[in-house]
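Batch manifest, entry 17 of 40.
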Amino acid sequence: MTPTWKTAASTLVADLQTVFGDRLRSVVAYGPRLEGDEDAPLSCLALVASLEAGDLEKCAQLAHRWGRADLAIPLVVPEGEFRRSLDAFPLEYGEIIRAHERVQGDDPFVGVAIATADLRRACELQARSHLLHLRESFIETGGRPAAVGRLVAASAPGFTALLRNVARLSGVNTSDRVEATRSGGRAAGMTDAMVTDMLNLEREPGVPAADPSRLFPEYLAAVEQLSQVVDRWHDS
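Output type: C-alpha cells
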C-alpha cells in the first residue's frame, strides 16, 4: 500500500516543478507525518538552483491549495545557501537528515555532515533555553496542579526533540523516533520511565497521572542535568 503522505508529496512536487522548472533540484519529506502521526501535515524541504521574489509570489498563490492537500508550507532553500547554513541550523537540518524520504531528485544529504562542535553548541543553547522557559513558566502557573500539568504536556515535544539532538551528538544515527529519543535520554543519564512519560506526552494531550503535577520535579531535574551534560560534552 502506498503511504498516504506520498499523494500529498506528489501534489507538491508537481506544483514546485511548475514554479521552478529545471531549477528544482530535489524534494525530501520529513517530520511527524512520516513517523506515524497521520494527523500532522506533511513537511517537505525543497532545494532549488535559485530563488527570487517572483518565485515566492507564485508559491504564495499555492499556499491555500497546499493547505487543502494537508501539506505544510514547504521549506524552499537555494542549494548553495543550504550547504552554507548547516552551521547556523545544525538542529533543524540535523532532524531532517535523521529521518527523511526522498520524493524528487537526488538525495541532497549525500556527503553532507554537520560539525560536532556546531551541534554541541546548538544543543547547549536549546537545553539552557528550555530550562529557563520551564522555570519561568512554572512560576506563571502559580503552582496550580492543572496548570503545571498543561505546562509539562505543552513542553514535552521540545524536550523529546532535544533528546534526539543529544542522541545525534553521541553518535547515534537512527530514523526511529522513539529509539533516537531513548538514546538521547540514556546519553544524559535519564531513567527509561522518565523518557517514556515524555514520549507519551509528545503524542497525547493529557498527562498520564491522576495528579498532573507529579512529573514536574523529575522533569525539571532532568532538564537541569541535560544542560550540564551538554555543557561538559567537550570534556568527554
